[in-house]
Amino acid sequence: MPEAYIVAAARTAGGRRKGALSGVHPADLGAVVLNALIARAGMDPAGVDDVILGCVTQAGEQGSALGRNVVLASNLPQSVPGVTIDRQCGSSQQALHFAAQAVMSGTQDVVIAAGVESMTRVPMGSNVALHTAAGLGQGPWPESVQSRFGVPAFNQFHGAQAIADKYGFSREAMDAYALASHEKAAAAIAAGHFDAEIVPVMTAEGPFARDEGVRADASLDALAGLKPLTEGGSLTAGNASQMTDGASGVLVASEAALKRYNLSPIARIVNLTVTAGDPVIMLEEPIPATRRALQRAGMALGDIDLFEVNEAFASIPMAWLAALGADPARLNVRGGAIALGHPLGASGTKLMTTLLHALSATGGRYGLQTMCEGGGVANVTIVERLV
């Protein structure tokens, strides 16, 4: 089977909700990343066959074919197509899968997989709220689905709490995990580890190039003072991911394109896996998805040098570690979404960008990325570092 290679990877710094990136239109935010990928790859932008863009809340400024609008806002010629996809939090990771599949099938040679989410300008859930406010229909889940699963709606907060309860994670343990995320991210910033992966975004206040949500002064006492997200629960805003504005992307190319455009790959795609399970507990699916990905790749967990498991809530990577027996020292070594933020549709290629740069810095060979997604779905991507 033909190989798919990652040639370039970049992301913006994460902006707090109503923070530094709040004045930037989502299409312009995504365009910054597209321009950076072409510059880093050093290729003619007219050679891009397609742009696949992940975005979860496709309404307002993120509606009306955002993927195409990002292309039109960028330096790419208007001859380059663009499409928007939604696989919830895994949207841009799925964009990467689609891009790699297109290259591996031989139907395309150069595809950009990217993602963008402005959680300030297009609030999470606003696309559903607009529909409900207009009094149109029943919302996302018809009575047939509600009766089948015995719930009026699927709720990620309840799912994350159910996982915490299932594995017996205390509030204190999850707060300790959250604190470690901030500490690792703060250390990475201080050491300049994110500098190579972040592309600056010009704002009214000047260039923005430093993750805004990391709290170097985080403490267990401060985390302990936060109220639970659900009554009687142990999850809080402190041990859950932050609402964030941001964009990210990777450029995927075939072997033929590497030769045609004289491109230097930084990684090879080893495995692409997506699975689905219980939509009620919802967020536990990265565990069986990881097992399947490793089996399909003919690899063991010990073969993987670094893991990126999205910190949607502390209970998710904690459960992943507990169920698989993975080495916590290899997990989210530069912090995760609890500290760095979770810009929904952009998080997939954001995590991949960080994973690739961390592999390069540490000399690791293989990396595995996974994240929980709405509806009980999970993507897993395994890559091999080449430089």
From TrEMBL:
E.C. number: 2.3.1.9
The organism's taxonomic lineage, starting at the top: Bacteria, Pseudomonadati, Pseudomonadota, Alphaproteobacteria, Sphingomonadales
Tree of life domain: Bacteria
Thiolase C-terminal domain location: 264-385
Domain Thiolase N-terminal residue range list: 5-255
Name under which the protein is recorded: Acetyl-CoA C-acetyltransferase
Family, similarity comment: Belongs to the thiolase-like superfamily. Thiolase family.
GO molecular function: acetyl-CoA C-acetyltransferase activity
CDD domains the UniProt entry points to: thiolase (cd00751)
Keyword hit for Transferase: yes
Entry keywords, A to Z: Acyltransferase, Transferase
Pfam families linked to this entry: Thiolase_C, Thiolase_N
PROSITE patterns assigned to the protein according to its UniProt record, in alphabetical order: THIOLASE_2
Keyword Acyltransferase among record annotations: yes
Matching Gene3D superfamilies: 3.40.47.10
